[in-house]
């Protein structure tokens, strides 16, 4: 057993334990390596949970629910959540360093998005839980005295939180914060690629006074490892998952055993629709962020761009210029704007689409390969930012999620036609529409089959709004009151008067 994981040092490997029942625990002899994708260097080792370790975490969470945590008021939980937010901000530099080392993403991005939003999630859901209301009904009865129905919200119990690697702290706290606000206990399984910030959060939880067992972290992989052990565990009352659609299918099968509810935020193949009357500067800037931010590893990111023909050439050349101005630097250099892909395995996948686009006859506007970088970045999982034109809509490059810094740009002539092309996808997560014609913006937005549609922006988030995907991009919505609906159950109480 070890007591803490800090201080983190870029030049000193770190060993990460599970966090169970308020303590850092190393349960068996198994561990795996954690690599920095910016250099390929090993930055630490991580314990891998077996079924017994996962069971210990679930049992700790169940005990916590039966203890004082299960009797806390919304006000008490909100106060604790605000302390967690403060604790993350106090240790901002530790979280920042951990996230940058695990992901290789530019420090400028992680310091503006990942860490502050990770903390903000706790404040947002502390506010949210204090304003939660339920319904009441007066019911007529034959004796004329009537009955009063009112609903209360109760926590579901133990929630399994299965997380991806692209925005590790942000996406994990997006689920942990509302789950705790509603009075649940959680067992988190962070991505094997990015295990550090979830572990570090254990220290903050202890400092903030979160009782032992309310927040637990188990490390490992998916199938036949911590992810599967956790989602199959009958002591888990609900599963919230962000990741690939195929993984969602496997988790849904696990959730069927015991009929446990799921909330899924899955993959996408998001489109941007750019009309000729748009503010071209804004459309280029927004599309450039939506394609290349976080090296294209954002679920809401754009991989299909449709541009109205009169501005097609101008748009493509402006986007090309923006892509070629991206700068790969040491991730801790504030001037860097493009990071690596998360792993060599993911780089192989992205490069397979780069090759496929070339063999299918795409015009490569820019990129298409691997950048030539000096050591130590030469050991990193970098690819060139890439833009294609000239592929048909049924090409795999336009239908499958690539999750890299790349997009295909196609021209369109007709509004109805472009709506049909955008909707011709198994996914339905997000879209961005760029036009100055407000009537058209509303008309088109209502017809695109997605969970989130931006007009003249991208990634503009109000955390009270419903967040999630249609079709194979997800099940359910989180955000604001929608999170509270997943993390609680309604109990109706009928009182005969
Ligand atoms: P992934 O599905 O490979 O892994 C996600 C998590 O699931 C990891 O912790 C992994 O260990 C675990 N896992 C894998 N197999 C499992 C199994 N059989 N049982 C239980 N757990 C299992 O996803 P990823 O590669 O980490 O993340 C990228 C994907 O996430 C992309 O498809 C992206 O679109 C999606 N994503 C979606 C959203 C959204 O809000 N819709 C947000 C971010 C990422």
UniProtKB/TrEMBL annotation:
CDD domains named among the record's database cross-references: ALDH_F8_HMSADH
First-tier enzyme category under EC: oxidoreductase
Family: Belongs to the aldehyde dehydrogenase family.
InterPro entries named among the record's database cross-references: Ald_DH/histidinol_DH, Ald_DH_C, Ald_DH_CS_CYS, Ald_DH_CS_GLU, Ald_DH_N, Aldehyde_DH_dom, OHmuconic_semiald_DH
Protein name per its UniProtKB record: 2-hydroxymuconic semialdehyde dehydrogenase
Residues the record marks as active site: 265
Entry keywords, A to Z: NAD, Oxidation, Oxidoreductase
Gene3D superfamilies reported in the protein's UniProt record: Aldehyde Dehydrogenase, Chain A, domain 1, Aldehyde Dehydrogenase, Chain A, domain 2
MF terms (GO), sorted A to Z: oxidoreductase activity, acting on the aldehyde or oxo group of donors, NAD or NADP as acceptor
Presence of the UniProt keyword NAD in the record: yes
Keyword tRNA processing (UniProt): no
Pfam family of the protein (one): Aldedh
Organism: Enterovirga aerilata
Domain Aldehyde dehydrogenase positions: 24-492
Entry EC number(s): 1.2.1.85
Top-rank taxon: Bacteria
